[in-house]
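>> received
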Amino acid sequence: MKKPNKFLSFFTKYPVIISLVLLIPTTASFFSAMSGAFDFHYNYLYEGESLDIDDETFELTGIKKVGNVTQLSSNFSYQGGACYQNYYVVCCDAFESILIYDTTNMKLVNTVNTGYNMPTWHCNQIFFGKDFYSSRDKFPLLYVSMEHETVHSIMVFRLMKLGDAYYAKEVQQLELYFEDEQDTVYFPNAYYDYDEEYIYYGGYTEKSYMKSDSNKLKFYTFNLPDYRLEYFTLDTAESLDTFELPSETATQGGFISHSHLYQTFSFGSETDPLKTPKMRVVDLKEHKIIKDYQNLGKDFGVYEEFEHVAINYDGKMYSLGNPFNIYEFEFKADE
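>> returned
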């Protein structure tokens, strides 16, 4: 008896499957053509160079003015700042606008029209993640800490370019949750460790941003959630690590390099020791302060409120001194 043709038998038995297989090239071409019209999630990671800051030998040597902030709002000040490649990005209080500067000449190259005016969003701390929402985007996703007393959230935005203008589109909200209200921290900010890929979320243990022996800065450590989840709760009961440090008055923005947090504090006072501009470096793995600059004004002659420190791809550190000045923090790292 002649054996049946297996190929023909399969085709007869599964005509729908065969038809779908034959359609795959056409379908793939269709979606490829349509990708220009619709947003798809891509997982393009930024693999930038490691920052050239040498752990415990970090030494701040000077602060020099390199530019001015363009004041677009008479109602709000500028707060958090972050760098991506050769761009320095500054965020306005209430998320009213975002300014983008080219660090090669510190010129304003674009303004992001956010479409927001949220008084509870102080935008004290911002950072760029590694993920790009779309392969067409120039910037990775931007994470903005509200730093509000009762609303503990991080808003995640995609910076979209339409024509010559940029717009901010919300893609995710992360909320810090406390099972025990007594563990609540105040005025919290989030920082991202690009090497370990952890997010550190920390704030004051007392309902105050003033330094005291009893008021600590408490940090919680989490894995950074997938940005495709529109809402995600960071439950402190599931924190990977928790630790406390002595507080300083008025936390400002900062960044993490090699698991070390670089952060400014306080205001621009020349006379009040609690409010002189400060900066510290924290070893997040060892839970200890390894550098502590208690008076940047006295040390370097600049009495301003340094709203943050941010570092770009070639290892230059920038800060916004309120009201309108951009500074470069000069440092050396011994070999």
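>> The first strand starts at residue 44 and ends at 45.
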